[in-house]
């Protein structure tokens, strides 16, 4: 399988062995890693007591025009060479998708992109796959296909020759209910930030948390996946497919239905953020956060242009990466959470205590976040360090489970309301619809128009307040936002206390 993003093309491997001086040629637009397959395949075969043909070997990967990259063709090339010598039967691998990199000693190494490769194969009518044993858990997600995992080329060839499987790899396909996830119960105090997180999860509203170090910004953001609804099976498969291509499944169970949490460092490059790469195109942080949370700590410290590269995915839920042989699209639909210190030294509190920054530095610091990006952020929440009283309070905070129940029912309400609209979350209501069928109560509109007239609110700000107000209404079981919800939404957006 040659993968292009999440889609793939079936590649047929043919081998011809002819008399002549020992020679090996590989046809079909291989990249460097693939060209090196000869040495891996030869060493792996010889070290597995298979015969390497000292003749003229021609390996052809077709369709020939399709560029092919990486090491996942090793195993299929080795098997084709064995079959071409008559040492295994062609029928044993008929209509079988074979994936795997070979180690020099004959072990089969894991490869990236197994799940998307299988999905593409399934769509092409292939019903059987041979994969590295270490990719089996991921591969088994592709129900409807017979999937076999092997540790070494010797083990695989024994199976192809005799039908004998030496080790049955036991698999636990139960969905892991992870007890060691963090919980909102651990967060003391911070009523505003906790509430903002609940609103963000309910309506899909992006959020910035502003506060000094140690206030609990990271703590709160990293708990968002525990209050987001569990992923549907389809969403979980999509997330696993993206992580499979990125090779980051080790840190995430392939069966997980918890929304992903991805937190690139502020020194991350543009490519790390949105994806790309010179040879192998890898999805970036924004795609790894698909259906989950993208958290960027110390956002004003991000490199020039890095945050702005998120504008396309924020707009469309996908990211397109241009490359020499055509462009490639990955899904990237995430909840964005930014965290920022209030000033370069981090200690600014409004009263200026302990802060060593000039007032100009303070003003400029958050200004580093560009207007177009901040336009997409619906809530601006000040987070002050928790006081001693809060920390000493023996009443623990509300659990993630309790919050998640409210989030889920708010989402159900919104989805029902939008059932004929083509979107599901309040953050997705188009401006046009906000002026017509999704207007708040009259009193609330009057309040907003007054704020507009006093130029305390821009037209864009007004739309964001209304979207937020809908989420607040859904959370309080109201059918339409009233003045109350609109005022609360207004203060969440502006970052003042409720
Ligand atoms: N509201 C809070 N409740 C409980 N512990 C907290 C709270 N805020 C901060 N802490 C403690 O301080 C540590 C640092 O918090 P963190 O979330 O990393 O702060 P920030 O990201 O704002 O710098 C946490 O690991 C936790 O032990
Ligand atoms: Mg932090
Ligand atoms: Zn400062």
TrEMBL record:
InterPro entries: AAA+_ATPase (IPR003593), CHLI-like (IPR045006), MCM_dom (IPR001208), Mg_chelat-rel (IPR004482), Mg_chelat-rel_C (IPR025158), Mg_chelatse_chII-like_cat_dom (IPR000523), P-loop_NTPase (IPR027417), Ribosomal_Su5_D2-typ_SF (IPR020568)
Keyword Signal: no
Span of domain AAA+ ATPase: 203-387
GO molecular function: ATP binding; DNA binding
Zinc as UniProt keyword: no
Family note: Belongs to the Mg-chelatase subunits D/I family. ComM subfamily.
Protein name: Unannotated protein
Organism the protein comes from: freshwater metagenome
């Amino acid at each position: 399988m040659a993968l292009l993003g999440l889609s793939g093309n079936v590649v047929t491997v043919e081998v011809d062995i002819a008399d002549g001086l020992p020679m090996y040629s590989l046809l079909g637009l291989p990249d460097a890693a693939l060209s090196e397959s000869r040495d891996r395949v030869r060493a792996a075969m010889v070290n597995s007591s298979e015969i390497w043909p000292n003749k003229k070997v021609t390996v052809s990967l077709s369709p020939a025009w399709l560029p092919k990259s990486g090491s996942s063709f090793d195993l299929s090339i080795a098997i084709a060479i064995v079959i071409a010598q008559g040492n295994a039967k062609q029928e044993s691998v008929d209509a079988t998708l074979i994936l795997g990199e070979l180690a020099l000693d004959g072990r089969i190494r894991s490869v990236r992109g197994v799940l998307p490769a299988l999905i593409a194969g399934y769509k092409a009518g292939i019903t059987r796959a041979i994969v590295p044993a270490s990719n089996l858990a991921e591969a088994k997600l592709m129900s409807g296909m017979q999937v076999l995992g092997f540790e070494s080329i010797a083990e695989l060839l024994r199976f192809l020759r005799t039908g004998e499987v030496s080790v049955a790899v036991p698999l636990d396909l139960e969905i892991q209910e992870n007890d060691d996830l963090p919980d909102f119960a651990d967060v003391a105090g911070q009523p505003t930030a906790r509430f903002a997180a609940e609103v963000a999860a309910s309506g899909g509203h992006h959020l910035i948390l502003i506060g000094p170090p140690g206030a609990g910004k990271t703590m709160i953001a990293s708990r968002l996946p525990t209050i987001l609804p569990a992923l549907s099976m389809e969403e979980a498969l999509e997330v696993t497919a993206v992580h499979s291509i990125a090779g980051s499944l080790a840190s995430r169970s392939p069966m997980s239905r918890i929304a992903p949490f991805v937190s690139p460092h502020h020194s991350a490059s543009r490519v790390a953020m949105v994806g790309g790469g010179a040879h192998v195109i890898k999805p970036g942080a924004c795609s790894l956060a698909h259906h989950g949370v993208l958290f960027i700590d110390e956002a004003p410290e991000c490199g020039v242009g890095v945050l702005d590269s998120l504008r396309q995915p924020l707009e469309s839920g996908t990211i397109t990466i241009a490359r020499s042989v055509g462009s490639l699209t990955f899904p990237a639909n995430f909840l964005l959470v930014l965290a920022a210190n209030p000033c370069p030294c981090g200690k600014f509190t409004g009263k200026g205590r302990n802060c060593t920054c000039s007032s100009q530095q303070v003003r400029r610091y958050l200004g580093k976040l560009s207007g177009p990006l901040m336009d997409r952020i619906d809530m601006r929440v000040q987070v002050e360090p928790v006081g001693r009283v809060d920390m000493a309070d023996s009443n623990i905070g509300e659990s993630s489970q309790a919050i998640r129940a409210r989030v889920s029912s708010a989402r159900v309400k919104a989805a029902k309301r939008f059932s004929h609209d083509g979107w599901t979350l309040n953050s997705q209501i188009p401006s046009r619809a906000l002026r017509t069928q999704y207007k708040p109560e009259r009193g609330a509109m009057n309040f907003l128009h007054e704020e507009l007239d006093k130029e305390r609110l821009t037209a864009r700000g007004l739309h964001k307040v209304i979207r937020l107000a809908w989420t607040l209404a859904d959370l309080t079981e109201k059918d339409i936002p009233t003045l109350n919800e609109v005022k609360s939404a207004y203060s969440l957006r502006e970052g003042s206390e409720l």
